[in-house]
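Quick one: structure for this chain?
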Amino acid sequence: MAVGNLEFIKSAETTSSVSELAVTTCFTSDYDVYKIVCTGISTATAFGEIYNIRLLDNTSTQISANYDYAALEMRASASFIERPATGDTDFRFVTKAYSNPQEGNFVMYIYNPTDTGSYTFVNWQSAGFSGSANLNGNYKGIGVLKDTQEVTGLKLIGDAGSNIDKAKISVYGLASN
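Got it. Here's what it folds into:
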């Protein structure tokens, strides 16, 4: 492994309507930092949909508690909105999407997911679109899973349970030595 190189690990993709899109067993002790790239998220929801990330434990079971985060929604046509929470069920406000071709995209970094001696930290930024004049799907966020269990995967889900009509998630390990 070369210093600072991204190494492709795994991807998941859908082109038909699903309730969630998961990438399982993609985090190992081989890397301390992972880069997640999610592109082309679209939904048929008329007013757009917010998409969130939930982490998976070493049995690919959802971890549904102890998420703290702070996201900033950066709107083009209105004031920015701060979106913080503690003790939530996932990392919310990761991106927003409308219907094709007005898609959501994000990049997320995950730190120490398999280290059972520390919390798992994340940061992300996204560009999304919601509606013809209200560009309010752009987020920048940080978060922590306040749990020391081993995290080995992640899941993209809609905030209100709406489906994902199209998306691709790619996972990369960041080689440090």
